[in-house]
Amino acid sequence: MALARSTLVYRVRALLGDDKGWQAWLTAQSLAADTTIDVNDGTDWAEGDVMEFSDGELAYVQSIATNAVTVVRGYLGTTAATQASGSMVRKNPVYYYKDVKDAIDLTIQSLWPYAWKVVDDTITPSTVYWYDVAATAIDLISVSQLYGTGDSVLGLYGADSYTQRPIIWSTNLPTALVASGRGIGFPGGFFHSSNTVYVRYRAKLTADLSGSDYSDLSDGLLAEVVAHGSAARLLMSKEAPRVTQDDINQNQESAPPQARLTAAQVMYQKFTELRNQLKDELMRTIPEMGSV
């Protein structure tokens, strides 16, 4: 599972109609400490404009001399970084990259119990009663172990002691017993005294990154859920842009409050529909084990 952050940010902006904003490019490299940015056409900029680079850094325009723009780097708490010659820069985006990113992260973190990821773990039988699992574990999907002649039999652990060996699952254990506070007990013993026990469990999705990719996100329905949820969050907190020149000429560059709230409601409704569809799909394919 991996989805580039930049891809998801673009999709959210596209849903908001903020993906085709005015853009320019740099004609020379700009180091993180530089306060002058060389652009292709300085007449396109004015004091008070905000530049946004592709990595999310913001720069506040203070003055312009021909094609050299004097700026405050790392504006609004963003991090100043080296920007390459030829790289694109956005002018006054309605939704800043950092705001879109924050909305995405909050949406991902709020998806439980409608969405989850599957984590595979292993346990080596020993003399302890409780066995530690990851702190992100929510509940079990399956627990199994090979045994018998040539390890040819699959033993299943679960609540049904008639057909399976029982297990106990707890999420509130003292850390003195298991470091994560979450663990599995095997009151009926193991099918095999030393073979690896394979544990699969449901866990909450995180906004963690691997490089520039979300570790827990993949393209498809999950990405659409996050994109629509993030767009709804942003619409609830900021004006929705208009897109035609006629609107701009009439000083109606943004939607009035009631229209903004209506747009947010529609976007949120679509988000909930997609989220419920995702939950139904997950429940059919990778449901929890059940009561243990």
Report the sheet-strand fraction: 15-25%
Number of helices: 5
Structural domain count: 3
Question: What's the helical proportion of residues?
Answer: 25-40%
Overall mean pLDDT score?
89
Gap between N and C termini: 29 Å
Low-pLDDT stretches = 242-249
Radius of gyration: 26 Å
Oligomeric state of the chains in view = single chain
Would you count the extended β strands for me?
16
Which structural class fits the helix and strand makeup? Answer: alpha+beta
The largest pleated sheet is described as: 6 strands, antiparallel
Globally, the shape reads: elongated
Topology overview:
Elements: E1 3-4, H1 5-15, E2 23-25, E3 36-38, E4 50-53, E5 58-65, E6 68-72, E7 88-91, H2 97-109, E8 117-123, E9 130-132, E10 137-147, E11 153-157, E12 168-170, E13 183-185, E14 197-203, E15 209-210, E16 213-214, H3 221-237, H4 245-249, H5 257-285
Antiparallel strand pairs: 1-16, 2-7, 3-6, 4-5, 4-7, 5-6, 8-14, 9-13, 10-11, 10-14, 12-13, 15-16
What do these coordinates show?
The chain is α+β, with helices and mostly antiparallel strands and 292 residues long. The protein has 3 domains: 1-20 and 95-115 and 208-287; 22-92, Elongation Factor Tu (Ef-tu), domain 3 (Beta Barrel); 117-203. The chain is 26% helix and 25% strand. The strands form 4 sheets. The protein has a 6-stranded antiparallel beta sheet with strand order 2-7-4-5-6-3, with no helix packed on it. A 4-stranded antiparallel beta sheet has the order 8-14-10-11, with no helix packed on it. Helix 3 packs antiparallel against helix 5. The two termini are 29 Å apart. Mean pLDDT is 89; it is low at 242-249.
